[in-house]
Amino acid sequence: MVLSDEKMKGYIRRLLLSRMRILNDHGFYGLLLMHMTYAVSTEVETACTDGVRITFGTDFLENLTDEELDFVMMHEILHVVLQHCMRGEDRDQERFNIACDIVVNSNILLENKMDKRSITLQKWGESMHLAPDGKEGYEYTAEQVYKAFIEDDECAEALRGAVPLHKAYDVDRRTCGGKNESYDGVRVHVSSLFGLKAYFVGELDD
Q1: How far apart (Å, rounded) are the C-alpha atoms in residues 127 and 171?
Q2: Do 205 and 199 touch, CB atoms closer than 8 A?
Q3: H or E segment at 148?
Q4: Which helix (H) or strand (E) holds 21?
Q5: CB contact burial 109-147 (16+ within 10 A = b; e otherwise)
Q6: Helix (H) or strand (E) holding 101
Q7: Which phi and psi angles does 114 have, rounded to 5°?
Q8: b vs e for 82-100, b when ≥16 Cβ sit within 10 Å of the residue's Cβ?
Q9: Pairing relationship of beta strands 120-121 and 125-126 according to DSSP bridges
Q10: Would you say the pTM of this structure is higher than 0.85?
Q11: Residue 156 Cα distances to 14, 88, 162, 165, 184, angstroms
Q12: How do residues 35-69 score in pLDDT, each as one tens digit?
């Protein structure tokens, strides 16, 4: 499916405005997001990152509120900064993804003064943010949370069938690999938001 220029401009506008809000309200996250490349694809179900770019599925993006979009943007950039894409290769991916999400979401919660609305998606509810011992995930590394999952039989049993946040809105990171404009047969629109902002400045300011 080919995206029309009008549709693409709408998606770009939303991403620019989200980054602007985050830069204004959460400067550290906003500055980090300034260095990312972004993609929009009709074939990606939700959102993902490979450490270089953040890719959004068009349907997913359209159904996010502005507040939810800001959360997803902050969530993905923290995965990049903490290099989660490169730290879980020798571990159970399902559990390690959950551990990473707990650490990321808890840090975003802390950034938002523990307001749980800041890590809530209306479709899936409040995102996981507590470590197995009941403490906030920001107190630990992803590896420490993962180890707690492995060592705690009761916790491991509770995790069976659990849906990590990335299963809710992030595709397998392997489908986001590379820097080309296509991957795994999926054609995407990839551009730096710096360039997009300059190119669409007239339309975006209307």
Answers
A1: 17
A2: no
A3: helix 142-151
A4: helix 5-25
A5: bebbeeeeebbbbeeeeebbbebbeeebbbebebeebbb
A6: helix 93-111
A7: 65, 25
A8: bebbebbeebeebbbbbbb
A9: antiparallel
A10: no
A11: 39, 17, 10, 17, 33
A12: 998 888 888 888 888 888 898 999 999 999 999 99
Residue whose pair of structure tokens reads 């159904």 in the numeric block: 63
Tokens of 189: 């629109």
| pLDDT tens, position by position, 116-148 | 999 999 988 999 999 989 999 999 999 999 999
What does the mean pLDDT of the chain come to? 77
Task: Tell me how far apart the alpha carbons of residues 64 and 62 are, in angstroms, rounded to a whole number.
Answer: 6
Residue 122, strand partner residues: none
14 touches 61 (CB < 8 A): yes
* Two structure tokens written together for 152: 């705690």
**Structure tokens that stand for 57 in this block:** 């599925």
The alpha carbon of 18 is separated from its chain's Cα centroid by a whole number of angstroms, namely 13
Helix, strand, coil in percent for the chain, rounding step 5 = 55, 15, 30
Structure tokens at 34: 């300034």
What residues contact residue 90 under an 8 Å CB cut-off, 6+ apart?
Answer: none
Task: Please compute, for residue 34, the number of CA atoms within 13 A of its CA located in the half-sphere on the CB side.
Answer: 11
Which strands make up the sheet holding 47-49, listed edge to edge? 47-49, 53-57, 37-41, 189-192
